[in-house]
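A favour between colleagues. Tell me how you read the following sequence-structure pair.

===
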Amino acid sequence: MNFRLFLLTIFMVSGAYLFYSCSTVKTASTSKKALVIYPSPPDTARIQYLTSFSSSLDFSTKQSKFNKSVFGEDKPKVISKPFGIETHKGKLYICDIDVGGLEVIDFEKNSFDYFIPGGKGELKLPLNCFIDEDDFLYVADGNRRQIVIFNAEREYVSAFGQEGDYKPTDVFVYDNKIWVTNIRNNKIDVYEKAPPNKLLYSFPDLGEGEEGALFQPTNIFINDNKVYVTDFGDFKIKKYTHKGEYLSSVGSYGRNIGQFVRPKGIAVDRDSNLYVVDTGFENTQIFNEAGQLLMFFGGTYQGPGGMYLPAGIAIDYDDLNYFQKYVDSDYLLKYLIFITNQYGPDKVSVYGAIELK
């Protein structure tokens, strides 16, 4: 694929190279709404902004006049300050650090609900979450300093975390293990999935300043080949084997294409392309498996498609039908990309990876 013209779209500002989202807006052939695509022509569009949502009003049916007169007007449930995001079996789970819980959106039922547990399962600062194949929910809580676990019925099961030098920021379940980013010891802590969740090992076992050492690990993604970690303190995404051996890194500090200012959420698609959300640039950059920049999308919020302090990302191959109505008629939808915005009118923005028919 040819992204050369797109990658050259940078602007000189105050003597330094700053980069922004390179998109085009035109009237969509299927509706009156503006079509926002990335990158701009003449390059082939790869990403289309589809829609966004910020409250239960984006999903619920309109309340009838009779219902309103009898029960009063329904108060909408809002997404306040979303951070981490995860998709699983037709549902979207949004960690909201303002409400002390999660928003759960069911696409099949077109429903929007809060999950705000109490008692032993009370959440204080839910940063990121993961849902495993048994539908168990794992929440990394930065203020509880624990991983809090709920079963498929969303009943509290247990919580774990080492006392003292421990502050989890993200969690991932893979190969019957629970992988946790810990910004207190700057390592990835790996636990047994089965209770009592015994600590198995931590990595990387490297000294400060050594290549591959972590300075502030905040986000994690795992596939069959690698462990990807956002090192917020080193402005890089670092790759490791499943045993914790350092492989390579992507990015560096700077304001040019392919660099990072405040990297946060990460995801990897089925083609091993890496997606990195940058809160500072307010965009998402895409790299191939070799670490070469392919493109970016989003940019400082100026309207639909823009981002406003983005934090989390999730890639979804299963819920295409729900969003098919937003796709321009010239394109085929391959998969979905959800991005959380901590501020602004579009708390969750939905993009589609597209290709020409």
Observations:
- The CA atoms of residues 93 and 104 lie 5 Å apart.
- The chain has one domain: 81-356.
